[in-house]
């Protein structure tokens, strides 16, 4: 009993001191089985061995024995629990090993199958290798035969090529002999052509020098032309007057004024004198003389030929002004603007013809190194107020003329300025301005201009050869017609317009009179029209006036009044015109 207790105690001590095995820690299967068998034997011995009767209780040993028995029971219970757990782990491990064994068995079977397949493939590859070797031997034999055949065929072709080459070589030698003769012939022609080429180059150089000489001469001739043109214009006078008589209109009476054309510059008007008691009615003669007089059958082209030299002066750098004066319905607007079609060769007016001449001349002068910049504007003076005829809001946009203190030149700030490079661009501006211009119907004219229109073309030029600069201006003015209030039948707004027109024309007459008489004070500021024309009438400008008159007998008083005014203008001396050159282009 003591031995068994000691053994149990020793095992308990061993169990207690031995570290517990972790659940995930695997032991060898044999150790586990041996441990279980040993545990079962100890339990069995404890059950079958009879216990020695306990000695009488002793106060000192009884409690110790009871404690040992209690520990042995606890330990026995613990061993039974561990035994059950060991059996469970053993069963799990056994199942796992069996499952793994099945897997390994299947893998071995798969490997056997793969080995068999590899063996079969190896056998197939061996057979295929033998077949390929046999085919390679067959191909090698065939290739050898083909190479021999090609070699033999190549020898035949080589010999044939050598033979053909020999024949061609003989032919080429024969042809080369002919080619040598042709080469010598062509060399002779080439030498002749080279000589001709040299002669042509010499001729080209001669013509080039001649062209240069002619260009220089053309520039000198152009300068001489300008000088002669300026001299002619000065001899003709600074303010030239041209009289133009319009033909009868379809609605007018056949009674006409009796004109006596004494020459291309002189005419006289013959009218019946007043009847007096006891006296014979005498005819009155009113002679007039101007720079040129155009009868009613004169076309627009002929009229423009007379003013074309003055238009040319604007391109030479002068301030040029052409204006039309006369009673309403006398043909002023037709003379200046022509018909509605500004490009109709027969009817187009002085403005469109002047523009065409300016652009044609500037285009020809480009060969002499001239480059031009042109700017156009169009305005009207209506009731002594300036309106911009090229502006969209021309009726509400009121402008004012001012004097530039640097140039002493009259200009209009904020006036629309349009850069133009072709006549068609200017014609479009003319159409727009003509549509905007103020007109009204009176007893004297069914479409009477109620304002003075002023077309202005500014021209700046620069010569790239001579470095010369020019700055010219062309002013083309259509004055509103003078009317007698009692004859025009004007009323309301039209009456106000007529009064303003007559007042401005009267002021223009006063200015002309002051200039002609050499007065110290010239009333240019008496109205807007005279202020705008200050540079053209009193400055260093070249000015020309059309006096347009009617052939109708009922207008004879207005006709004589217009001719007298024109005579006064023709007597004006405004000094020698000067061109402007000191500016930056």
Walk me through what this model shows.
This protein is α+β, with helices and mostly antiparallel strands. It has 2 domains: 2-18 and 28-122, no CATH class; 237-570, Kinesin motor domain (Kinesin), CATH 3.40.850. It is 54% helix and 17% strand. It has 12 helices and 17 strands. Strands 1, 5, 6, 7, 8, 9, 12, 15, 16 and 17 form a 10-stranded mixed β-sheet that branches. A 3-stranded antiparallel β-sheet has the order 2-3-4, with helices on one face. A hairpin with a 7-residue loop joins β13 and β14. α2 runs antiparallel to α3 and α6 runs antiparallel to α7 (423-436). It is elongated. Mean pLDDT is 80; it is low at 1-27 and 440-447.
Itemize the secondary structure elements and their pairings.
Blueprint: H1 2-17, H2 29-48, H3 62-236, E1 239-245, E2 258-261, E3 266-272, E4 283-289, E5 292-294, H4 300-315, E6 319-325, H5 332-337, H6 350-365, E7 370-382, E8 385-388, E9 398-399, E10 402-404, E11 409-411, E12 418-420, H7 423-436, E13 439-440, E14 448-449, E15 452-463, E16 469-478, H8 485-488, H9 493-517, H10 528-532, H11 534-537, E17 542-549, H12 556-570
Parallel strand pairs: 1-5, 1-17, 6-16, 6-17
Antiparallel strand pairs: 2-3, 3-4, 7-8, 7-12, 7-15, 8-9, 10-11, 13-14, 15-16
Helix pairs in contact: 2-3, 4-6, 6-7
């Amino acid at each position: 009993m003591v031995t068994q207790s000691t053994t149990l105690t020793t095992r308990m001590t061993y169990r207690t001191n031995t570290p517990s095995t972790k659940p995930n820690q695997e032991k060898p299967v044999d150790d586990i089985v041996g441990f279980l068998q040993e545990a079962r034997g100890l339990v069995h011995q404890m059950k079958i061995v009879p216990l020695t009767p306990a000695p009488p209780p002793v106060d000192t040993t009884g409690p110790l024995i009871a404690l040992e028995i209690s520990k042995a029971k606890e330990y026995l219970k613990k061993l039974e629990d561990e035994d059950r757990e060991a059996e469970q782990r053993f069963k799990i491990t056994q199942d796992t090993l069996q499952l793994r064994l099945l897997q390994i068995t299947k893998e071995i079977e798969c490997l056997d199958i793969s080995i068999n397949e590899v063996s079969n493939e190896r056998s197939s590859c061996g057979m295929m290798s033998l077949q390929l070797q046999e085919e390679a031997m067959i191909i090698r034999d065939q290739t050898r035969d083909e190479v021999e055949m090609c070699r033999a065929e190549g020898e035949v072709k080589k010999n044939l090529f050598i033979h053909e080459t020999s024949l061609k070589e003989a032919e080429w030698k024969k042809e080369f002999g002919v080619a040598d003769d042709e080469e010598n012939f062509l060399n002779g022609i080439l030498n002749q052509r080279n000589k001709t080429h040299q002669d042509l180059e010499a001729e080209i150089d001669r013509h080039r020098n001649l062209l240069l000489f002619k260009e220089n001469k053309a520039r000198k001739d152009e300068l001489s032309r300008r000088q002669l043109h300026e001299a002619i214009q000065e001899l003709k006078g600074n303010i030239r007057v041209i009289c133009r008589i319009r033909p009868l209109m379809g609605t007018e009476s056949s009674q006409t004024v009796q004109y006596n054309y004494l020459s291309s510059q002189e005419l006289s008007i013959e009218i019946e004198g007043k009847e007096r008691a006891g006296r014979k009615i005498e005819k009155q003669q009113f002679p007039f003389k101007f720079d040129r007089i155009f009868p009613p059958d004169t076309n627009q082209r002929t009229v423009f030929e007379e003013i074309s030299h003055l238009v040319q002066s604007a391109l030479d750098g002068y301030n040029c002004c052409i204006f039309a004066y006369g009673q309403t319905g006398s043909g002023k607007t037709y003379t200046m603007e022509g018909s509605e079609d500004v490009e109709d060769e027969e009817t187009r007016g002085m403005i469109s013809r002047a523009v065409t001449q300016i652009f044609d001349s500037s285009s020809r002068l480009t060969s002499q190194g001239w480059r031009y910049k042109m700017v156009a504007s169009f305005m009207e003076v209506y009731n002594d107020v300036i309106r911009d005829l090229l502006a969209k809001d021309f009726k509400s946009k009121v402008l004012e003329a001012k004097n530039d203190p640097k140039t002493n030149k009259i200009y209009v700030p904020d006036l629309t300025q349009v850069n133009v490079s072709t006549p068609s661009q200017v014609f479009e501006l003319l159409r727009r301005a003509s549509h905007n211009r103020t007109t009204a119907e009176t007893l004297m004219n069914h479409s009477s201009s109620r304002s003075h229109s002023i077309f202005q073309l500014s021209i700046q030029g620069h010569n790239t050869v001579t470095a010369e600069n020019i700055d010219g201006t062309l002013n083309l003015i259509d004055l509103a017609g003078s009317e007698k209030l009692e004859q025009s039948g004007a009323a309301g707004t039209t009456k106000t317009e007529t009064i303003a027109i007559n007042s401005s024309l009267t002021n223009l007459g006063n200015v002309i009179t002051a200039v002609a008489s050499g007065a110290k004070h010239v009333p240019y500021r008496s109205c807007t029209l005279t202020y705008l024309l200050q540079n053209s009438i009193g400055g260093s400008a070249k000015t020309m006036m059309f006096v347009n008159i009617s052939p109708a007998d009922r207008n004879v008083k207005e006709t004589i009044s217009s001719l007298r005014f024109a005579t006064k203008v023709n007597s004006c001396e405004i000094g020698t015109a000067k061109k402007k050159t000191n500016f930056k282009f």
